Amino acid sequence: MTDNREKTASDFREEIKHAFEPGAKVMSADRELRYCLELQRNRIAKRNLKYKEEMVHKGPFPDGLKNVRSWRDVHYETSWTVDYIDHNITIQRDGLKTYKHGERQAIYETVVDVRDGEDVSGDDYCCPNCGAVSTISELQEGCRHCGTSFKMSELYPKVANYFFVYDVSGRAEHMWLTVLKYGVYSLPVNLIMCLYVLYTQYGMTSPVDYFLQPFMLIRMIMVMGAMLPIFGYFAWIFDAFRVAAKSTPVFFEVANARKKFASRMSMFCPEFTFESFAARIVSLLKIVAYSDNRDDLPTYSGKDLGTVFDNVVDISFLGSMSCKSVKERNGIVYVTGDVYVKTTRDLGDRIKTKDEIYRVKAGRRIDSMFNTDFAISKLQCNSCGASFDALKTKKCPFCGSECNLENNDWVIYDIRNVELELLIKRLIAAFVILWLLLIALLDVKGLI
Ligand SMILES: [Zn+2]
Ligand SMILES: [Zn+2]
After folding, report:
1. What is the pLDDT of residue 415?
2. Deepest in the core among 30, 49, 204, 251, taking most CB within 10 A?
């Protein structure tokens, strides 16, 4: 991992701590993710919520873990950086039951870098509208003197996506500490087993017996102390299994997704890795969910979504996305996949979080050429010539005419919740297996 990417990742970790403060810009994030965070901040402000997010770095961890995975395609190198944090979220408002959630987590950041680009971020550029000189990097959010917006190549490296994973291994702390902690959690079970042994072996039934025989009491406490790490170890393993079992089907599908995507996509545009695609789709899904004006979004051309996302104040990617299909029609390649997220919704009197699965269909023109040479140009309305940010709106905010200025990137065509569908499929599968087992059993017994 280059120093640049490492720096971008750590800048991002600092910047997202303040992402919801007024006027904050997360410049280490790419355009789409930056826009997501801006929309999310507006949503939180609109609902009058006090949203406090704390990420306290927990370290140290072995160096080898920093560079978790990295993928290369023709133009980009995408990698995951990981860090261990105590992640605490508090959401408050008058009349709302205060929501608090704290967990030790690993934070993953998807960092994208160009493989052979030159760094132009510090170069001077003269605004074609007002003539003021700024550096290229200062123009990412438009000219600060006259407000002119620009269409420019992304200034890599940038963070394209991020997510949190429950740190089941407790890698951030010493193993014995984790085991002791789980040992303390399982003290009730430990106590019950000790009492049971004393009862069956020595016939001790009432608490009075223990006071009459203090030696037995001391002995019991010593045995419980000795058993504590053993109970802790088993409790820890059990917990790890529980979490793994919850996410195993997802992991299988995701491992498959990478292969499926690569083999099918290679026919149309082999320039993409699944990771960069997944990062973009997650950002676009969030943009659609947080947006209050979807008709104007240049990145959404699906049906009216009604109010399903109106009370969503956070969508947290769970790190998994599957790939269902890749199809080409009329010069556009359509990719459909399931995105696993945790949504946080404001129900008025309380906050509710839920794991949800959304099937997203996205498309991209395959005739638009890839170009990693740096390019910058003024964005302006075809009718009135005013400048506006074409990522955020396709209608000119000045004259109202529709001009799709940037249509060569991914666009979402459909979003729907598929949880129920998947649940029914799993129930049917379970039913079929039970049925076959029953038939096999009856057969063995010679009943059929
Ligand atoms: Zn200017
Ligand atoms: Zn206009």
Report:
1. 97
2. 30
